[in-house]
Design a protein that fits this description.
Helix content: over 70%
Oligomer: single chain
Order of helices and strands: HHHHHHHHH
Shape: globular
Number of helices: 9
Largest sheet: none
C-alpha cells in the first residue's frame, strides 16, 4: 500500500479539522463552565434528566461532558445524568401504573418486556439494558411496569451504561485534548457497534426473545 494512502487512512483529515476547530469552541465553553462552578455539572445532569422526554440524542451530551469537564469528571456527570433519567422513567411508570402507561407504551412492546423479564429474570434485565432492543427511556419506563425490583434495576442500569459512557466521554476528551485518545476512541466505538449488533441477536436467541414485538412487521 502506498505510504501516502496509509497516512490518509490512519490520520483522516476530518479528525484534524475537528480537533483544531473544537479547541477554540471548547475553550470558551470551559471558561464559562469554570465561572458557573458547581452549577455547570448540575446543569448537564438536569438537561440529561429533562431529555428523558425529548428526542434529542443523549450521546451528544455525554461527548460534550468529556470535552468540557475532562474524562473522570465528565464520566461522573454522565453517569449521574443517565441514572437520573433512568430512575425518572422507571419511577413514573411505578406511580402511574399500567392503565395510564399503556397509552404511552405500545401493547406489543409491553408484552415483549413482560415475557423477557419473566423468562430471564435479572440476567435479562442486565443484558437488555446493556444491549437495548428498545429506546432507552421507553425501555426504562416499560421496566417500571414489571416485577423488577428497584435494587435490581439500579445496579443493572449502572453496569449497562458504563461501557458506552466511558467511550463517549473519552471521545469528547480526545477531541478536546489528545488526538491519540481520539483515534483509539473512534476505533473502540466502531468495535462496540459491531459487537453490539452481534450480541443483540445472540441474546435474542439464547433467551428466545423476538427482536420485534407483536404488531411490528418483519423485514
Amino acid at each position: 500500500m502506498h505510504w501516502g494512502l496509509a497516512s490518509t487512512l490512519v490520520e483522516p483529515g476530518w479528525l484534524h479539522t475537528l480537533g483544531t476547530w473544537s479547541r477554540v469552541t471548547i475553550d470558551h465553553v470551559r471558561t464559562a463552565a469554570v465561572q458557573w462552578g458547581p452549577w455547570a455539572p448540575a446543569t448537564s445532569i438536569l438537561v440529561t434528566i429533562v431529555n428523558t422526554f425529548l428526542p434529542f440524542p443523549t450521546d451528544l451530551i455525554i461527548v460534550t461532558n468529556g470535552a468540557v469537564f475532562g474524562f473522570w469528571n465528565g464520566l461522573l456527570v454522565s453517569i449521574a445524568g443517565a441514572m437520573g433519567s433512568a430512575c425518572l422513567a422507571f419511577g413514573i411508570a411505578r406511580l402511574v401504573g399500567r392503565a395510564v402507561a399503556q397509552r404511552v407504551v405500545p401493547a406489543g412492546a409491553m408484552e415483549w418486556v413482560d415475557n423477557t423479564v419473566e423468562q430471564g429474570g435479572w440476567g435479562a434485565v442486565l443484558l437488555i439494558q446493556f444491549i437495548p432492543l428498545l429506546p432507552y427511556s421507553l425501555l426504562n419506563f416499560a421496566l417500571g411496569l414489571t416485577s423488577v425490583r428497584w435494587t435490581t434495576f439500579l445496579w443493572a442500569t449502572a453496569v449497562s451504561i458504563l461501557p458506552t459512557d466511558i467511550l463517549l466521554v473519552a471521545l469528547g476528551y480526545g477531541v478536546a485534548e489528545a488526538r491519540t485518545v481520539l483515534y483509539w476512541t473512534v476505533a473502540a466505538l466502531v468495535l462496540l457497534a459491531l459487537v453490539t449488533i452481534w450480541l443483540r441477536y445472540r441474546l435474542a436467541r439464547l433467551l428466545k426473545i423476538p427482536t420485534k414485538w407483536a404488531g411490528t412487521s418483519s423485514s
